[in-house]
Amino acid sequence: MALPESVSRGRLLLWPRLVLFGDSITEYSFQEGGWGTFLAERLLRRCDVFNRGFSGYNTRWAKLLLPRLIAAGAGAESTAAVTLFFGANDSALEELNPKQHVPLEEYAANLKSMVHYLSSVGITEDRVILITPPPLQEAAWEKACLAKG
What confidence tens digit (pLDDT) does each residue in 48-63 have? Predict the structure, then answer.
């Protein structure tokens, strides 16, 4: 099989990149059977999938971190898409977890701020994928928490 012309001439091959940015659901998405693994397998040799998940983070902290992960002139043109998957920590009950809790209005404003920032560095809104927090089955969650002590 003949190599494509760009390869045979020694040019650097650059795949578009997909950046997964979120909390622990994103961080652990590359565990066996995870959604990040699924995407990476489906996009193999078509797109590089970068996991930028941060366990315990909420949107308040994420919007401060985002400019350190994706900066102007740092490959925005090669970024196929960025996922923003936050909300599980933001929705923690304020009285039980005030450190992670983010009020709903601030949560929405933080997401808008991150989308605006990405747009300002060349990643247009049509390449930003907002993923909603998953539903919570309280009985199963309580059982899992009790099992962990």
Answer: 999 999 999 999 999 9
At CA 73, angle to CA 18 and CA 115, rounded to 5?
55
CA–CA separation, 131 and 62 (whole Å): 14
Q: Is 26 exposed, middle or buried (0-12, 13-18, 19+ CB in 10 A)?
A: buried
Give me the half-sphere count of Cα atoms (radius 13 Å) on the Cβ side of residue 110: 23
Cα 34 to the chain's mean position, in Å?
14
SS3 string, 9-27, reads CCCCCCCCEEEEEECHHHH
DSSP symbol at 119: H
Structure token digits, residue 142? 């309580």
Write down the pTM of the prediction. 0.84
Give me the phi and psi of 52, to 5 degrees please.
Answer: -125, 60
- Is residue 115 within 8 A of residue 71, CB to CB? The reply is no
